[in-house]
Each structure stands twice: as C-alpha cells, then as structure tokens.
Amino acid sequence: MNINDCLEEKLRNFGISSSYIQFLKEEVLEVDKYSNYYDVEQTESLLVPVNDIVALGMRGVSNCTWWEHATYEVGDLENSRMSRFEENNNLSQLRIDQISAIFASDNFADHNDAVKLNFYQEEGKYFVTNGNHRVMWAKLLNIPFIKSKVTHFTFNPEQYENYMIHHDLKMELQTLLKCNQMYVDELSGKKAIFYKGILVIHLPQKKYMNYSDAKSVELACSNITDTIGFINSLLKEYKYYVRIPAFIRLNFLKFKTYFTQNAVQRRRLKLIEVLLSQ
Fold first, then answer.
1. C-alpha–C-alpha distance, residues 165 and 116, integer Å
2. How many beta carbons lie within 10 A of that of residue 175, not counting itself?
3. Non-local CB neighbours of 82 within 8 Å, separated by 6+ positions
4. Backbone dihedral angles phi then psi of residue 191, each to the nearest 5 degrees
5. Is the model's pLDDT at 98 over the cut of 80?
6. Does residue 112 register a pLDDT over 80?
7. How far apart are CA 101 and CA 38, in angstroms?
8. How far is the C-alpha of 210 from the C-alpha of 215, rounded, in Å?
9. What is the pLDDT of residues 230-273, one digit of tens each?
10. Per-residue pLDDT tens for 120-139?
11. What does each C-alpha distance from 130 to 136, 148, 242 come to in angstroms?
12. Beta bridge partners of 40
C-alpha cells in the first residue's frame, strides 16, 4: 500500500469524510505576501480556527496542496516528527473530540515550543511560523480550533500602495518576458534575462524590499522600468530590421556587429540577428 492509500485509510479510521480528504487534495497553501504591507502589533495566546490557517511556515510550499505536504511530495515536513506526535499523544486510541481537546488546551500554547501564527486582520488569515507538524495534524483531522501564540498585524495603506506599484511593474516585466520567450536565469551567480541561451541584460542584485522606505521602492521600480524600457527598445529595433529585405539584413547586421565596439550594443545586435534567423 502506497503512502497516499495509507494516509487515506488512517484518516477514515479517525472518521474523516471522503469529501474532506478531497478538500485536502485540492486546497493549496497561500503565499504570505501580507508581511510586505502589515505592521506588527501585539502577541497573545488564542484559540484559532484551523480553517483560517492558510499556509505552513518555512517547511511549506505555496500553491501546493495540504495533501502533497502530508504525503511528503513537497515541502520539508518530517515523517518521524509526524509519527512522534501521533504516538506521544496516543491519537489512534482517542476519539476526534478528545483529540480536539488536546489541540484546544491551554498547555498547547503555554510552553517554549508553542504553535506560533501570524494573523493579518484585514485578510482574516493565519500563517504558521512555528509548529508546522502540529498544524498539519490539525488540518488532516479537521480539528476545529488550535491554541496558539498569535502575533497580530495591522494593515499599512502607505506600504500597500508601495507594494502594489512594485508588484504591478514586476508583473508587467514577467508578461513582457513570457510574450517574447525570454526568461530569467543565473550567470556567474547573478540574475540575468536570456533569450534562447543568449544574454539579453543583467538584472540588478536583488535586495530585501522594505516597503516603508519610499527611496528603496523608488530605486527598485526604476530598475524594473529601465529593464522594461531596454527590452521594448530592443524589440523596436528588431522590428526596424524586419523591414529590411531578408537577403540584405543578416549580412548588414553581421557587418554592423563586427565594427561595433560597445559590448551592450553588440549583444543587442547579436540577439536581433538570432531573432531574425528564426
């Protein structure tokens, strides 16, 4: 019996319905983008609805399902730790209501290794920062509440505006690359944009974004705008050469590339030559 079948059988023995198992196979973990534009407030111990927990911490992979994590297809959950929690709490000998009482007890949050969650009030969503394996068990068994140490975050509209400006520019660049079969890869440990293995342009070194710092946001947006501008000018130049008769343009490009001293312009011409030869 494979791991998927074993887990399904185990959950059915706990009384978990087929529809809920299907939910686990379909529901994906969310990306914690909210920390970019929320401010930290207070931390307190709370009973948290498990349904409102939308992602694991560093051990989780966003846009992958809870089931994929529970069967160790993705993420970094450990089978040994999942088994240890099950054995230490004698889960197989208890009813679901008794297991629910364990997760809801004060002791569950009142120790050094408590389950810890970040809560974004405007979204009504919780993200795990500690206790991934325990939260995974709570999800699998459809436990209603889990006692956790919760750090509250409040929405910061100024940071949100900066985040969205930066985010929209990144999406514009991604769309531009996808539409023109370009992609981001590494060259000598640094990010760059390529087309069919040919370097198009180096990207500025990525730094941690602080959306409360208007100057750093402005610089990051300026870098993306410059990259978009460079690619658009490259495409415009390509369209110019397309108008030249085919029997002339490639020889003309090779001649021009040979006598061009500027490395960036030589790279542009070489890339245009590849585009035209398709």
1. 31
2. 11
3. 133, 136, 137
4. -75, 145
5. yes
6. no
7. 32
8. 10
9. 999 888 888 888 888 877 877 777 777 777 877 777 777 777 87
10. 999 999 999 999 999 999 99
11. 11, 10, 57
12. 153
CA dihedral over 158, 126, 132, 75, signed as positive or negative: negative
Can you give the length of the chain in residues? 278
Q: With bands split at pLDDT 50, 70 and 90, how would you rate the model's confidence at 195?
A: confident
Angle of helix 214-242 relative to helix 157-179, nearest 10 degrees, comes to: 20
Element (H, E) at 127: strand 125-130
Measure the CA–CA gap between 273 and 118, rounded to whole angstroms: 52
For helices 263-276 and 246-259, angle between their N-to-C axes, nearest 10 degrees:
160
Picking from 147, 116, 112, the residue whose alpha carbon sits closest to that of residue 131 is: 116
Structure tokens that stand for 180 in this block: 């023109």
Backbone angles phi, psi at 235, to 5 degrees: -65, -35
Read off the tokens for 10: 């185990």
- pLDDT at residue 278, rounded to an integer: 65
State residue 18's pLDDT score: 96
Q: How far is CA 2 from the centre of its chain?
A: 29
**Phi (first) and psi of residue 246, to 5 degrees:** -55, -35
Global pTM exceeds 0.90: no
